[in-house]
Amino acid sequence: MGLTKTEIFTEQQNKIAVFAKAFAHPARVAILQQLFSTNSCICGDLVEEIGLAQPTISQHLKELKNLGLIQGNIEGTSVCYCINKENWSEMKSIIAQFLDQDINGTNLNCC
Predict the structure, then answer these.
(1) Span of 6-15, 16-25, 28-37, 40-49 with lowest mean pLDDT
(2) Residue 39 · residue 75 · CB < 8 Å
């Protein structure tokens, strides 16, 4: 498999790609929605709520944590997860700037 050559892209382009990865699987979207809807840390309730096996949920939680959108705290024998508010706000700002770009109206029929 070829290299991604991320170093040839800007920091913002790389951040957009990293944040977009969080939404690349519906299970991760469902996990984020569940964390927002409970508005508190979740410790193990995601299996019942999402309907996927524990190892699958754990893999998606690991990915979201690596992306920096959630954080986990160890409480007893379990890990509790919640939204990383600072990184979520940064992601919203960067994605909003990207999505707010408009098509130049002078050349709409270029293709």
Answers:
(1) 40-49
(2) no
Cα gap 36→28, rounded to integer Å: 12
CB atoms within 10 A of CB 100: 7
Phi, psi of 41 (to 5 degrees): -70, 145
Centroid of chain to Cα 56:
16
Evaluated on CA atoms 36, 25, 66, 45, the torsion sign reads positive
Q: What pTM was computed for the model? A: 0.82
Residue 67: CB atoms within 10 Å: 17
Answer for the pair 31, 64: CB distance below 8 angstroms, yes or no. Answer: yes
Structure confidence at residue 28 (pLDDT): 95
CA distances from 70 to 11, 46, 47, 52, 55 (A): 21, 14, 17, 19, 18
Which pLDDT band holds residue 98 (cuts at 50, 70, 90)? very high
